[in-house]
Amino acid sequence: ELRNGKNLYFLLYKPIYLLIVAMQDPDMGVKMRNQRLLITVIPHAMTGRDIIDWLIQKYNICEEEALHVGAMLVRYGYVYPLKEPRSLVLRPDESPYRFQVSQPPLHPPAIYLAKKNIRKQGELMEYEKERYSVLHKRINHTWDFVVMQAREQLRASKQRRKADRIVLECQEQAYWLINRPPPGAHNVLDMGLERINNSSRVTLVSDITFLYFLFVKYSEQYLNHDPIMQGCLPSNPWISDDTAHWTMNAEVVPSPTRLRVERWSFSFMELLNDSMGRREFMTYLEKEFSAENLCFWQACEDVRHGENSRIIEKVEDIYKNFLAPGAARWVNIDSKTMDKTLHGIRHPHRFVMDDAQMHIYFLMKKDSYPRYLKSDLYKNMLAKAVVPQETKKR
Amino acid sequence: MACQGLQSGETLASLKKESDSLKKKLEEERGKLNDIELHQVAEKVEMLGALSIKTKRLLKGHGNKVLCMDWCKDKRRLVSSSQDGKVIVWDAFTLNKEHGVTLPCTWVMACAYAPSGCAVACGGLDNKCSVFPLSLDKNENLSAKKKAVAMHTNYVSGCTFTNSDMQLLTSSGDGTCALWDVESGQLLQSFHGHTADVLSLDLAPSETGNTFVSGGSDKKANVWDMRSGQNIQSFESHESDINCVKYYPSGDAFASASDDSTCRFYDLRADREVAVYQKDSVIFGASTVDFSLSGRLLFAGYNDYTINVWDVLKGTRVSVLFGHENRVSRVRVSPDGTALCSASWDNTLRIWA
Questions:
Q1: What is the ipTM metric for this complex?
Q2: Are B295 and A215 in contact (CB < 8 Å)?
Q3: Which residues form the RGS domain (chain A) (predicted)?
């Protein structure tokens, strides 16, 4: 069983495959020429400079980015150097490079090791011997076939021209340097853990047109609150080394910042997510004699997110305080939801309060929350909110 | 492994051919309906000015690849985990290492900070996710207080606390996600539906707080109801493994990062993909994504050691962050949006602002 989640064969990485094909195009690809290597002439080679120039032209990018892409191509083995094959860098000069073989050979590590074994008469390095025996065990039944293939390849290579042999050996060496580096060497193709890849099924895509402007609106609303985009006052602590911004926006402060109070008006969730906003809202509800709604909601949250072992105890408390007839803080839920909830709490579970909680949440959101935003309590808070002075960067 | 239940006369090749032609037909039909793309609506939106984002802190201390990190709610502390089993809690502002634990397993791929700031969760090749309380006493041996909460049958790829310290949500190489009660270690709910390793998950920042999204090696992103365990929505448009999923700040959408070298944006209300973030010169897999506070920017970490910054609305790339010397495994914007933290296989973490 072959695990191919992270496969050695670059053909499966479509964007890279497309790039390599484009680079090798006889008309529009990278300029190929015969490269002189010592006393041999290697055909179909290209210079590092030509690769860089081609990338710049093809992708309309700057030299820095082209150098980066080119460096990755060599590091990951799609292109290999003819000079100094052990140094996997892309030099933007006359240094010669070639494409890695595009046909994945059958059981490559096995054949490579078998060939080396035959050639050097059993003189593999220790880690190579280990791998050889592991592979032998794994592909036991095809082992004879692999050895036969290795013998064939060696016989054929003896008959090839010297230039081809040098190229092939450089190729193979680079290929295996990258894909099976000796222990201790940096493995750029270290793929992490292998995963089993299963084929996917076709998915139907629904074709509803909708309003993208909601995303535009959201980003506009939060623009001033996004420090990476607009900066923050008095300064971004990571840039200025001054923690004033954090001090001013601590959970409990005598006077919150204007941006913070403004944010409470963006949505009910924003108000409740800020502990200070939640306290302010509670104060408002107390004035309106409907604070039990927020208390009930908080108690339900506690059930939902708390320990399993305390669910029963908490639900009992909620019933006593909020739902029982004549309860001290009775909440006004519609009769249908109330009946369903009362029935459910006979066998309490984590989600037993969900319906009631949602009912009260939307009651607050639709009714109390909009009125709070129009109230003097909120307006005064906003008016006296602090706008920090910007401090210059160091 | 991949060829289950073939009918007589069918081959894998013929099935693939049929599925490809079906896909093509669907694309044609979609095209006929004249859909507007997100970037077209965003044409009137102001172009973003040049962003000046630089490394402001370099966190050195891990002896091996850093695989994961998570911010504390206090906006300056973070927890990170690495391949050699080390989990470190840092005050990233001062570069001070406040806690260190060594797990008995390697490849700690998941770590998370508890909402209270008093505990961290981590897991990986040990198939478990354990919770450690963070003691104020430096001399206390944290390993002794470790509590194994989640138990999977394969590696743990991701974990997050829900709205409290009491519940933990995990994703695993065993193809499932699971919700656990931290105190008792009890499995509260399990989520089945992925047909391969689940690589990532994220909790929805919604009012009712009942859903989460997961992404996996089966190229799918699934949205789940935490109460019922049901898979309520599924998205499959990536061409390779989905390494990371992250909700848009409003909770109405999410982004994904994939080995197919693209990041994508999905709207949950419309139940479809609405943007693809890709460039011809970006050819290596994307491993991680996160949004800036306003959701306008998408930060994505790649296997070519860079972080690309995308304009979510316009679909264009606005910046590239160079600096790491190996793959970027995780990017996370801090809770108040003041900084981006990136973790890398070069053994370091960087804070960008």
A1: 0.88
A2: yes
A3: 267-382
